[in-house]
């Protein structure tokens, strides 16, 4: 918020040669470039002996790190309870935050800088630990920050009083577009990108700035202080009763600073607090407000932050709508609109949009014209956005959404030096990231790994270990081009809250390996579901945790021996089967899993047929998915077996039983028939016979529709099967046309679900085949029955022969070798 300058509890006087007497209370909007410029000008004019900043006092020891060359905003002070790292709060600062500007000015001028807000030891103790549920996590630490927008929004009230319907537009007109010394540009960036303060020189910064009158830099704060005082008189604490405690502590710290430095004190705080700090109260009264506050032991450090997390839409109470735009306004040396349009053009060109220099010129002219028509002093974000949409995006909001995401909000991720305090686990993670050249980035990106390379394999192990520790830096995704086990793809995005996750995981160990091992062993002991243990075993193999595997395997054997539920066994087997195939690529010994997996498969083969009877539709659908998963798992477990032999042979026998039993749910019978047909274990004539029985007039239509869904439903190629086997298509067509009208409505949802999953081209071809009607046996293309090219009964040898040269070329087999092989 914007604020005011107040000398103690009185309006500052002016002198002929210098600024008003202190102390100076500089009320600010926490992330506003206009406030930052005004604070810098006020500090240059006032030259205080000490700077007090709203923030946790425990952070005083970390202040010198702000001048470290490795510190690059946006950053945040992170405070967390030692015994409960999940109870945490952040104090973010961007390069254009007034607090950061004040901090850097103090460090650059050897002036003490101190934080004066309520200590984190108290503020964290006052927070109620929220139970972590779905969709919750360390974000709650950010949302529970001490500095939030009051229930009464002062900016909105002041904007409405001034006749504005948009508080952000009012703020831009009054503050952000207010020039500093005749220039709209930034007086406070040192050109390094670290948010340092480029001073105008000692001579120029003594007293008033060149060309201005003494005290001019402080004058805007006086007017805004009066406005905030009026608001506090009208609205009291603004719906934030805890502010009284915080403000009492701030007044105590202000008194201590005045006792040490006299009135030569500058305070940078939220403008809402200025009237409270200027109020006349007694020390005893302030101490009484602080008496009996709970307290916890805390640790503080600097952590990287992002512009995206500064945005109000992220849930941050003191957030702003456009951190990227504000950063640009603060950093632009001059001509901010022209420079902004150039940035937009560069972004759109990188996305292959045809944007020329003429577009930039026209967009600038349009933005300035809109500002003039709307009576604004300069073009703001609204005018520039409208101009970009009209000129560079051709009226489309699709490319404009990219501009909003990449530039208006922004993707900047700050950096902190290695000397910043951190838990041992964080230091080990940082070392691993550097060794593996895996830099944390705020923007989402995809990482494709080839596990045959040692570096990629190490990256995969690190990411899997972090997932075990609930540090969600990366999520596995389906990669393009290959389904081999030596390929992995991850979607990476580093969020500031992950530092809290790392701190929480620090209780398990001091390195990523030891912490992941300890947590995996603990989860294995505590797990009650067999599927949870098998999934954990898979994660241990992926993360290469050999010391945790014995504990996990013992838990797995115990749970498997006691669990007689076929559904649980079927849920557990796929994860074990996937784990067994990782040995070849990851050089992991998976022999310990083989015996357990084989035992589970045998028990599933025995118990599955009885479990598939007497099911309601929902239960049948769930078990159909388990049958498919077990089928794929057994294919991985018994890859070397001959057809009809070993585990695969026993599973084929189970599928035959399921396909032939009338008591089995129709969707499961249909799926079992399809699986056997696809594996070549069921002749086509037998599949047609089973379909004919399932679709016979004596079968209830709902059961027949469920069979069809199981046989050709989903995205498993059922549509292509019907296209290429017109006998099956004819059976389905004949059954469908024979369903009584009063029962058709009952089966329609199942049929829609079945056929709507097909690709549009498949549905179109099926429609053409049904419209053409069945082809009599032995019919040819030159007869009276036209046959769709490539389809029809029997083998089209002419078309098959046309493929042979291409196959030889792909296989690298000359014609003579192919003939010799025959």
Automatic annotation (TrEMBL):
Comp. bias (Gly residues): 182-198
Classification via InterPro entries: DUF5682, LolB
Residue spans of biased composition, Basic and acidic residues class: 137-146
Region (Disordered): 1-22, 127-146, 176-216
Transmembrane segment boundaries: none
Protein name as catalogued: DUF5682 family protein
